[in-house]
Amino acid sequence: MRIAVTGIGTVSAIGITCAQTLQSLLDEWSGIGKMYALSSNHTELPVGEVPYSDAELKDLLGINEPMPRTALLGIMAAREALRTAGMSIANSQEPIAFISGTTVGGMDLTEQHWADYQEGKAIEHIRMHEAGETTRIIAKHLSPFTSHLSPFIATPSTACSSALNAIMLGANLLRTGQAKTVLAGGAESLSKFHLNGFNTLMILDHEACRPFDADRAGLNLGEGAGYLVLEREEDALARGAKILAYIGGYANTCDAYHQTASSADGEGAYRAMKGALEMAHLNPADIDYVNAHGTATPNNDLSESVALLRLFVDHMPAVSSTKAFTGHTTSASGGLEAAICVLAMQHAFVPANLRWSKTAEGLITPVCHTEHKPLRHVLCNAFGFGGNESALILSAEGIDLSEAPLVEISKQREVEVSDDSEVSTFVSPAEARRMTPQMRRIVAAAKKAMQESGVAQPDAIVCATQWGCMLQSMRFLQDMIASDEQQLKPTPFIQSTHNTVASLIAILTGNHGYNATYSQGKQSLACALTDIRTQMALGLIRSALVLEFDEQVETWDQVLSLIGDRTENIARASIYICKKPSIYQLIESHKSQDKSLFVLRFNPEHPIFAGHFPGQPVVPGACLVQIAEDLLSDMLGHAVRFNSVTNLKFRQAITPDKEVLMTITEGKYTIEDNVSHVMYAQFAATYMCPDSDL
Amino acid sequence: MEQLIEQLKAQIIEALNFEDMTPADIDTDAPLFGEGLGLDSIDALELIMLMDREYGIKLADPKAGKAIFQSVRTMAEYIQANRTK
User: Fold this and answer.
1) Which of A113, A129, A141, A160 is catalytic?
2) pTM for the predicted model, two decimal places
3) ipTM value for the complex
4) Are A523 and A438 in contact (CB under 8 A)?
């Protein structure tokens, strides 16, 4: 199936509509400047702020009720995305999914009203602290299709890669038939909390940022929102929608290196970009433009450059970071920048990498001024704390992605470790040094679950948490308020993000696989399980470590008691596997063992393909299709029949030895129950000899 | 100087959460990063903050910490020469 992008919405420092955003990009007008709406003592720090106060935003949106600024920015961008998609689905009964990444959520309200809470006032804001609540509020204000949003709402919170992960989950829901329309992206407002947090890391430039420049001195924090409307190509065409772009491929990996820094070899970034290319069946040379993560910190830009050079070698496409325009919009960045990529494709230009002047060893050279040229395939990167690295390819051409019915999953093991001496057998003192007691328990539970189930390296680590890492969050928040934003310790901030636990476990176990965290109230676990079940159906993963985490914090419980709620200590780790292997899993399993399912021989003068399987005799003249059918039937334990020969697609290449290399890239098959599945690519690595005896 | 070194060791243990350690466990001349205590970039930021909070020393460039944080002794020497409180 092909996934079409039919709507986009953008809100950032350079515009509150796509038209404004486009104009600013073309004019090379940066939105970095002095803070206006944010009330922080650190006025020396430039920011990429949406130039409206909360009250002004509410006026623009026609909203009166209290809500986090993140929700206001999100509503604005999400409404625009639906508008550009021409969505008139007030009467639609089709399943809709709204997936919106955020980390700040309602932190702006919590920091503004902290003193009020101590006096029992302003309690209507308390509930909005939760990241998932922001998504729920946005969904509620997406009129006219609000009432139909209930089927699926999810809030990925993987720090700065959150919005790209939202888009990936959205695409996966479409591919498994769980949604008909997806609105996905992310939103994030500035807050004193994360401005001070980034400041403790000493990675904020006191001037406007200079991505990829030799003298770059850090990032500028920004805010905004960006969403894409996704639907099947045929659905978009059927309702006469204009297709703006297609989802080409995507991948989420973990750098598994450090809580905040990127590895010197850019391993996670490299794997994410490579994975996206593989899903899209594209070569590096096919990419026309990379919208880099490019935060302008010394570490990110060097690590990302290394990864880009590893991947593209001699075919480096045009690269730029639009964060020089918008600042780093953190959890929103993937959605905002994916939408910017769509604008760039539609209007045939490469956005400039502003303020770049000098290169240094190891750094890529970005595009300094707007370049007008057609863009067929564009790569968008978003990397986050904990090494959560994501990459998305957007294409002007339709790219076929496999689809699959949902599969059953089963829980292999569920582990909780509450005894401190048992914790210490799994977590060394060096590992435990920065962790809160509850973090130590979840790490111990995870390690024990992996050990007992024999799944030492699960393909995915997914965490479900209602409140996130509250102990460190509350420490940082209270210190910040008490000290008037001075002399804050970095560690509590680093460990305040919701994805701390999942990424920490990946770092400690060297797991480069899929890594995500969901924060959706009591539905967080359901979101996590939907994610892994969907990916198992598509063969993207075979096993997953699922974490349930929340930590009880006295100060926050006192606040929550005002609304009759409380936190709980939860640290549970479970291993899930797919009940029945799907065709995709067989394919992936062969790939991982570096084995090919088919070895094919091809005589260019002979109309029929012939082939054999590794270790089996050649069957001259035998039809590849029959062989493929027999093999797959054997492996799956039921009859597999390809619908027709024409549904098999091949890709061929001539090697320097004049061998013809063939790869099956696509095939349709029917199983006994006549459910038609499409399988694509990856299931045959093959070689051909023109001089063969065929 | 020796008094400052002892005080600094206690402050490092507290700031970096070395729960089971005492000042006697830290070798004054051993490297703080890599081998020795095995500190990393987050710890470097914590040490910069410690110098700001306890001794009124502000480092604008985190890279400047590299020379200062070679050992507890180099750190103490830097503090003695630059402290404002």
Assistant:
1) A160
2) 0.87
3) 0.94
4) no
